[in-house]
Structure formats: C-alpha cells, structure tokens
Amino acid sequence: MTLNEWFEKGMTSKEYVDSMQVHKENLQSVYEGFNIPEKDLSLWKTVADRGLRAIVLTEDWCGDAMVNVPILMKIAEAANIKMSLLPRDQNLELMDQYLTNGTSRAIPIFIFINEAGEEVAVWGPRAPKVQEFVDQVRADMPDKEAPDFKEKQQKMIQTLTKKYTSDQSVWDTVYESIKEKIK
Hints:
Blueprint: H1 3-9, H2 13-19, H3 24-33, H4 41-48, E1 53-58, H5 63-79, E2 82-87, H6 92-95, E3 109-113, E4 119-123, H7 128-139, H8 149-166, H9 168-182
Parallel strand pairs: 1-2
Antiparallel strand pairs: 1-3, 3-4
Helix pairs in contact: 3-5, 5-8, 5-9
C-alpha cells in the first residue's frame, strides 16, 4: 500500500478519541492543558502552506501516545495538518516499516507526508529528552525474573503516567521535538 492509501485507511482524531477505552481522560487532559506558544503561530501558518498530512501509528493503551498524540493534535490544528490515526496492532505491515532502532514496534510514530503522498518526516516514539528520563526511571528496575518486577513495573508506569499528564515541561519538550522535525 502507498502512504496515501494508509492515510485513507485511518481514523480522524475525533473517531480515535471517541474509540478510546484506556487513556481517553489522560489524553484529553493533556490536550486541554497544552497550548501552542504564541511566538510559533506564524511558523505554523507557513507549515500550513506545505499541505502536510500525518499518519499516526498508535494504541489507546500506550502512555507515550497518551502524551504525544494530543500535542500533535494541537500542532495539526495550528498548521492545518490532517491526521489519520491507525492502531499499530491492526497495521503491522506499515508499523514494520517504521521500527525503532530497526527492531522495536514502539509507538506512537508520526509519518508526515506531502500532498503527493511522499514521506517528508518521521517522528517518534519519544522526544530524546523524554527518552533520557524514561531510561533513568528504567535503570532502577529489577531484572524481569525478579519476584518484585511486576510491582516495580507498575510503580514505574504510574510515575511516567503522572509525569506525562501533569508536567508542562514534558509537553514543551515533546512539542519542540516535533516542531524541529517538521518546521
């Protein structure tokens, strides 16, 4: 399939949010809390002239998608970027073309395409500075075989979810990282 065909296959932002079962409230909270900086509004008007579209590989259960997708939604509104969201697990043929480090089906992945359906930029699954924070949190995790692994993993997920949904600096970091890819 071409990228244009993948784009046509996906859901709108509204359809995606309406279908959410796991992180809907968290995604909406980030969306409502984040705003595009005034100083960047003219940049996004310039980007709008390029006619970009975004294919988003995501899943409702993904904490990274919970924070990154609503920030992209705000950018898309400011830059008139049409979004098409595809569940990763139902679209592995496309996902496997955008593996993180060539091996991982990490999400979200944002594939920016032009009007002709040509790839212009790819972003995801995390902003580099957010990845550093995740790596620090993971460094304290015990081996997967340790008896307390599941308990520690749940605490780690809670820590990340809290930071992702309440820390404006995380949102700003994600925003700047996406902006650098497509400006």
